[in-house]
Amino acid sequence: MTTTTSDAMVQVRGVHKRFGALEVLRGVDLVVPAGSVTVVLGPSGSGKSTLLRAINHLEKVDRGFVAIDGELIGYRRSGGKLHELKEREVLRQRTGIGFVFQNFNLFPHLTVLENIVEAPVSALRQPKAEARRAALALLARVGLSDKADAYPRQLSGGQQQRVAIARALALEPKVLLFDEPTSALDPELVGEVLDVIKDLARTGTTMIVVTHEIGFAREVADTVVFMDGGLVVEQGPPAAVLDDPQHERTRAFLSKVL
Ligand code: ADP
Ligand code: MG
């Protein structure tokens, strides 16, 4: 496909999205190389969540496209035209795109282990025993081996978010998207969740993380993207964007959050 950049895991090209009169994304371009971490910063309402939702086709874009590992998301190209994929095919594509939400979104009536094995068994048709083995390994990875049989309500917010990360990893996604994964947590629980994400970064997981945690961005991001008004205003290595921002809007934002 001509749209593929060799090592790009995620490509967002010229993406526009409008809700009624409000143009929320106004031509967003973003390339995320395989194995890299991109942190997205920006004021409330700048379009960060809409961008993440557009990447996994929870929002259909009005213009532009998204590709993951060279594959268009939500569409296929044929005869020079774009054809929308059937819901079933979009769901298949979404299994390759992990999503971690601000509010964890665990199934309250399922145990921790059941939360993790649900998607691999139902969406990927993994045998139950195999899915359970993988889930237990993931729980060990996020430091929650002793919580397999607990219910979400019995866990702290930080523990619930670590389960949500394990659940996302269970589908062996090509990319993990995080939408303010620590914003709903008490301050003392933020670190344990960021530590899990840092560990994933070290092992080469491709990630896009929307967060206001500037220290985390500085330490973990390969690229920091600053969005405002539905556009990428500035992007680059953390030292450039955070310590020497070129745009007044970036400076104004950082002066508020730092
Ligand atoms: P951020 O995550 O940066 O705070 P969002 O992407 O959530 O920003 O929202 C950007 C703008 O789009 C906001 O003004 C929001 O109110 C609006 N918006 C988001 N989703 C919808 C929707 N489904 N319908 C109408 N407006 C929306
Ligand atoms: Mg948001």
UniProtKB/TrEMBL annotation:
<keyword id="KW-0067">ATP-binding</keyword>
<dbReference type="InterPro" id="IPR027417">
    <property type="entry name" value="P-loop_NTPase"/>
</dbReference>
<dbReference type="GO" id="GO:0005886">
    <property type="term" value="C:plasma membrane"/>
</dbReference>
<dbReference type="InterPro" id="IPR017871">
    <property type="entry name" value="ABC_transporter-like_CS"/>
</dbReference>
<keyword id="KW-0813">Transport</keyword>
<dbReference type="GO" id="GO:0016887">
    <property type="term" value="F:ATP hydrolysis activity"/>
</dbReference>
<protein>
    <recommendedName>
        <fullName>ABC-type polar-amino-acid transporter</fullName>
        <ecNumber>7.4.2.1</ecNumber>
    </recommendedName>
</protein>
<dbReference type="InterPro" id="IPR003593">
    <property type="entry name" value="AAA+_ATPase"/>
</dbReference>
<feature type="domain" description="ABC transporter">
    <location>
        <begin position="10"/>
        <end position="254"/>
    </location>
</feature>
<keyword id="KW-0547">Nucleotide-binding</keyword>
<keyword id="KW-1003">Cell membrane</keyword>
<keyword id="KW-0472">Membrane</keyword>
<dbReference type="InterPro" id="IPR030679">
    <property type="entry name" value="ABC_ATPase_HisP-typ"/>
</dbReference>
<dbReference type="GO" id="GO:0005524">
    <property type="term" value="F:ATP binding"/>
</dbReference>
<dbReference type="GO" id="GO:0015426">
    <property type="term" value="F:ATPase-coupled polar amino acid-transporter activity"/>
</dbReference>
<dbReference type="InterPro" id="IPR050086">
    <property type="entry name" value="MetN_ABC_transporter-like"/>
</dbReference>
<dbReference type="Pfam" id="PF00005">
    <property type="entry name" value="ABC_tran"/>
</dbReference>
<dbReference type="InterPro" id="IPR003439">
    <property type="entry name" value="ABC_transporter-like_ATP-bd"/>
</dbReference>
